[in-house]
Amino acid sequence: MRDPYDILGVARSADPAEIKRAYRRLAKKLHPDANKDDPKAQDRFAELNSAHEILSDPDKRGKFDRGEIDAEGKPKGFEGFPGGGFGRGGFQRGPGGGETIFESFSYGPEGARRSGHGPHDAGGFDDVLSDILGGLGGGRGRARGRAETPRGNDIDITVPVPLETVVEGGPVKVRLPNGRVVEVKIPARVAEGHRMRMKGQGEPSAFGGTPGDAYLVVAYAPHRVFRIEGTDLRADVALPLAQAVLGGKLRVPTLGGEVELSVPAWTDSGRTFRLRGKGLPKAEGGEGDLLATVRIALPEERDAELEALMRKHAGA
């Protein structure tokens, strides 16, 4: 797997806010639902989620920067069983030439630790394996030969949610890392960044343990009418020329349906009206506003009387 910083396109000095912004931008661009014709889209999206998981977690990021874990979040230094021995040291021979000492490795805050077992305290191969697995999982097993098997990693899955669903609630389809598509109900009035846990739907364990969890992170999907500015919405609204001059009631779209806006006489094109509480839900409660900018629009068909009036006005 590539370097997480390269995957997110951020510098190693990037702060959490930069990492979050980069992830959201790329998640919308690389999401499999937006790249249905690309057979590698799922792999790229999974790679992005793995990179974000490491860099968004201060502890994991620190370990990666110090070289304690690799780009997949796995501890470095575990080299398997080369040459029939164990770890770097393998078996060591005693004065009589017999294999009397196991040399094992475990992982802790200080990195790799080496420990030896003499002929009287050696617990056998199961104990050595228990040390390795227990260290990787955050502690030794409770019984000899029964290390607690590490679970898979948790992952974040950014889910673009239509703005109408954000307000009203409803189902959205989510593609999981294993390729399965499930339908998840989004609660009403959910704010961007809201997290929903799906137990056991994260990455599988590399050691045969239980999978991690998947956390669905709500993101606002682009809208054909509204532009998003935090919890506020912006929209351009066509204003007939007659209403711009004489004033009147103008129908304005909102996420909850159209509402009437009173437009005063002699309203210039480009004037913005604030409709309070017609924006997006706020995490702390309440809603943002809708900022409606009117744009004067001519009639769809040519109007001879209007043209004559304009000529008269121009010659006045």
What do you see in this structure?
- There is one protein chain.
- This protein has 316 residues and is of the alpha+beta class.
- The chain has eight helices and 14 strands.
- Among the domains are: 82-137, no CATH class; 153-221, Urease metallochaperone UreE, N-terminal domain (HSP40/DNAj peptide-binding domain, Sandwich); 227-315, HSP40/DNAj peptide-binding domain.
- The strands form five sheets. It has a four-stranded mixed β-sheet.
- A hairpin with a 6-residue loop joins strand 11 (248-252) and strand 12.
- Helix 3 (41-56) packs across helix 4 (58-65).
- Residues 78-146 have low confidence and may be disordered.
Structural class: alpha+beta
- Level-2 CATH architecture of the domain at 227-315: Sandwich
| Strand portion | 25-35%
Instruction: Note the total helix count.
Output: 8
Low-confidence stretches: 78-146
| CATH fold descriptor of the domain at 227-315 | HSP40/DNAj peptide-binding domain
What is the C-alpha radius of gyration, as a whole number of Å?
31 Å
Instruction: Estimate percent helicity.
Output: 25-40%
Please report the distance between the alpha carbons of the first and last residues: 74 Å
Q: CATH first level of the domain at 227-315: which class?
A: Mainly Beta
pLDDT averaged over residues: 78
Instruction: Let me know the number of strands.
Output: 14
Largest sheet: 4 strands, mixed
> What is the N-to-C succession of helices and strands?
HHHHEEEHEHEEEEEEHEEEEH
- Taken from the alpha-carbon principal axes, the silhouette is elongated
- The strands making up the biggest β-sheet line up spatially as 9-10-14-13
Name the CATH homologous superfamily of the domain at 227-315.
Answer: Urease metallochaperone UreE, N-terminal domain
Biased composition (Basic and acidic residues): 30-46, 54-77
Biased composition (Gly residues): 80-99
Domain J: 3-68
Pfam family, one: DnaJ_C
